[in-house]
Amino acid sequence: MSDAREHSKFAAIFAAGTLFSRILGLLRDLVWVALIPAASLDAFLVAFRFPNMLREIFGEGASNAAFVPTFTEALTHESKEEFRELVSAVMSAMLLILGAMTALGILLLPTIVDSLTFLDRFVEKGPVSPDKIALITQLSLWTFPYLFMICMAIFCMAPLYTLKHYVTPSWTPALLNVAIIFSCLAFRHSFDEPAYALVLGVWLGGMAQMVIQYLALAKYAGVWVPNFKLGHPGIRSILWLLLPVLLGQAAGEVNRAIDILFAAAIPEEGTVRSLFLANRLVQLPLSVFAVATSVAILPSLSRSGALGRNDEIRATLMQGLRQSFFLVFPATLGLIILGRPIISLLFQHGEFGVADVNRTATALSIYAAGLLAFAWVKVSVSGFYAVKNTRTPVIIASGCMVFNIILNFVLVGPLGYQGLALSTTLSFSLNCLFLYAFLSLQFGSLWDAAYLTGLGRMTIASILMAVVALGAYRIVLGFFSDDGTVARLVVVVVPLLLAAGSYAMFSRSLDIPEYENFRSLIRRNKTT
């Protein structure tokens, strides 16, 4: 199988599982938005941001940059027994490190949440309620142990990726969503504060993910228990790679944490919820397409890096950038054009009103403008990780983190929540530009005639698709003046279907290779 088809196959497997998880995540959002009061959900989302922040750092930072290249090198150049010994030794270190991090986090969380009293002065809309701070603090203490469970599950994914077993890692994240949905429906009336039903779901989902990933690790890698060989040279190699990566990943996650703290400092109830939902809708195409692409190309990049084949790295990176552009850019235009009707269809029920729809749609448009930058950052960092160059992404991400924080302080006063969304989009766009430039310096220009022609054709197809979607939306909207569920469904589904069909037609007419690869992959999956 050629590298291009191999990447597409692995990306499709990961994307299918991720899409399933994201759909369940969307269903989870529908449930808790409709059933949990805005103030309670805002507090929970702030609290859950802290373990999720570290989950993101370890998930896409440690796994991609440190674990996968090191495990791949061991599997390529050493015996399977030595590979299993390395995995077991790293498991031992992870148990100790994550246990210490969890305990330390619980000690520091009350102080971190108290920072809201400092941030509210920049919002200029009144002080934060002490009751709000107290609720966020208690929820934070209860949700933070999820860090240990999910990071151990993520550790188990790295050997599975190395062994090209993508199925289990792709679908197990859905378990968290299933658990939260169940707890929200079954136990929200069992607590005086309904947010604690969501906490229960976090615990159930976290434990389920950890157990299943562990069993998959045991089955496919043959590693059952830690050996506590903490002096193993592989651990030192991973830590050497990991420390700068954690700093780099922390830059982006600190941005998100500061964003959500700023949002929590805005007195208007539902602000955190609106920003969260807008970001969730942006994350759907980002996670399904961009993350799947970056995960799929990393093993090949790592092998090429180990053999010193920079031309192969360059070709694989351009392939990954084109592949993500093919699906992410039309998704960007679609979210901007159809964002408001999509939000109205999904969330305008129960506790979520028209004002919430308008606020969320505005934030979504701003986030969507940076979607391609978000996607290309995911793909671009894989090029550095493949050759164990973790310092360059760290320096770039750290600089962009400072830029984002400055923008937050400057823009939140005059623009409110819109300023927070704009800060994120601008900082990620700058991050993308610097990563692309430095990759070109290291591996050669990440463009050629075929690459630029391909992007141009995809851009034309996407713009034509957007014209079709906008025209269909306006026409359908004219026939449905009421605001019922059926009308909302038709106003969203008809333009989306026409947009998807027209994009396929335009892509085929313009001879876009990514379209043919995508169609061939779907055809093969139907016959297997």
Count of folded domains = 2
Helix content: over 70%
* First-last Cα distance: 16 Å
Provide the β-strand percentage band: under 5%
Query: How would a crystallographer describe the biggest sheet?
Result: none
List the helices and strands and how they pair.
Blueprint: H1 3-35, H2 38-77, H3 80-113, H4 116-123, H5 130-143, H6 146-162, H7 167-171, H8 174-187, H9 195-221, H10 233-265, H11 271-306, H12 310-347, H13 354-368, H14 371-386, H15 391-415, H16 417-443, H17 449-479, H18 485-509, H19 513-527
Helix pairs in contact: 1-8, 1-11, 1-12, 2-5, 2-6, 2-9, 2-10, 2-11, 2-14, 3-5, 3-6, 4-10, 6-9, 8-9, 10-15, 10-16, 11-12, 11-13, 11-14, 12-13, 12-14, 12-17, 12-18, 13-16, 14-16, 15-16, 17-18
Report on the architecture of this protein.
The mean pLDDT is 82. The protein is built from 19 helices and no strands. It has 2 domains: 3-447, no CATH class; 448-528, no CATH class. With 528 residues, the chain is mostly helical. Helix 11 (271-306) runs parallel beside helix 14, helix 12 (310-347) packs antiparallel against helix 18 and helix 14 (371-386) runs parallel beside helix 16 (417-443). Helix content is 86%, strand content 0%.
Characteristic key phrases:
528 residues; mainly alpha; 2 domains
